[in-house]
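Can you please make up a whole protein chain along with its backbone structure tokens because I've never seen that pairing?
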Amino acid sequence: MPAAPDQWPVQGACSLAGSVRGTAIRPRARAALLALGSAMLVAALRLACALREEMAELTPRWHKRGYDLDFGVGIALGYATCGEVGFEGRSDYAAIGAVTNLASRLADEATGGQILIAQRLYAEVEDDVEAEPIGDVTLKGFPRPVAAFSVVALRQTAREPSPVSAP
């Protein structure tokens, strides 16, 4: 097996990830981002775009080493139940609900380098992003097709998130 790459995209993105809980890594390096709080929507998109840029540089090097990796993101807006899940001795903090499932399913649909967002999120950030409608996609676990948009870039005039103080 070839040696693992010496750089990972998290390096440059850590400063952007203040209010983003985490990512769910899937085969082919797909990620579902969960933004905590509506004030952080543009920050979640900024993080996704920064990761896409770093991955665009790393992917060719990984291919030369024999890794078949790519990067796609799904982001959705909505309510989730957040809290500790598990049992004594083995628990974790998690977000559960339809919105987390939607973000995950959008990530599964995303092709390499694509950031897919749900219609509800697009309605909140349409002044901040350049996005193309990809139409309705049929997603596992959803009774009707879901309208999705592919984020091309953040606009120069995109809002900066307000500072968040630690509890």
Observations:
- Strands lie at 20-23, 30-35, 72-75, 81-87, 90-96, 114-118, 129-137, 146-154.
